[in-house]
Amino acid sequence: MKRKLFCELSPLTYAISERKCEMVRTVKNLFEAGNFAKTRSDQKLEYSIYKHNSLIRRRLGNVDMHLQENKAVNLSLAAPKINMLLIRPGETFSFWYLVGSLSEKNGYKEGLTIFSDHPSSGIGGGMCQMTNLIHWMVLHSEMEITEHHHHDQIDLFPDFNRTIPFGTGTSIMYNYLDYRFKNTTDITYQLVIYTTDEYLCGELRANKRQEHKYHIWAENVFFSQKNGIVYRNGEVYRDKIDRRTGEHVEKKLIRKNHARVCYDTSGLEIKAV
C-alpha cells in the first residue's frame, strides 16, 4: 500500500501543510517582489494584442448555480486589482501578489473550487476562471510563462459552449500555487480585465506591435477507455506566424492531454484504441 503523505493523514495535517507552503512562498516573495509588475496606467496602451470574453455563469454538470452567482461577485472584486496593469520589460506578473488573500472580510463569497479530483467550494472560489483568461491571452504574446499549474489531467465537466482547447486552463491556490509570466521582450504590455453582468472580459495591449502573432489549436482529440476508465485525449499546439508576411515560423506542442473523465460518459463517442 502506498504510504500517505503528511498532508493526506487528516484535515488538520492538510491545514498544517497548506500553512507551511503559504509561509514559504511569502518569504520567497520578499526577495522577488522588486521584479513584480505593480504599476497601472489610466490610459490604454496603443495596440491591442488579443481579446477574449469568458462567460461567468456556466452550466457545469451538477454544480450549484448559487456558487456561480457567488463567483460573479468574487471575480468583480478581484478584477480591479489587475485592470490596467502594465507589465514592463523585465517584470514578472504574479496573480496572488496582486489579488492577495481571499477572505470574507474583504467581501469574497463561497464559490466553486476544485479539490483533488472533484468540484468543491471555498471562500473566493472562481479565481481559476480569471487566470484561465489571462493565460489564454498570454499564450498569444511574446512573454514567457514561468509558473503554471494544471488540474492534474482530469476532465471534470462536460463541454458547455467550449471556445478554447481543453487543457489550456490553470490551477491556483493561495499563495503557493501561483500563475506567473515574465516579460522577456522590449515591449511594455498591459492587462485590461473587468466584469459585466454576463462576462469576465480581458484584453492584452502593448505599446508597440509584436513581430509575431499566435494561433492555438487542438488536434487528434478523442475519448478512449482503459480498464473501465474513460479518458479525453489530444494535443494542443501553438503556431507562431510572422505578422507582416504571414509566414508560418513554428509549430510547438504545448500540451498533451490524457485526462480521466469525471462525469457521465454515456453520451460520449469512445474510440477503440
Automatic annotation (TrEMBL):
It comes from the Bacteria. InterPro entries: Glycopeptide_resist_protein (IPR052913), Vancomycin_resist_VanW (IPR007391). This is Vancomycin resistance protein VanW. The lineage of its organism: Bacteria, Bacillati, Bacillota, Clostridia, Eubacteriales.
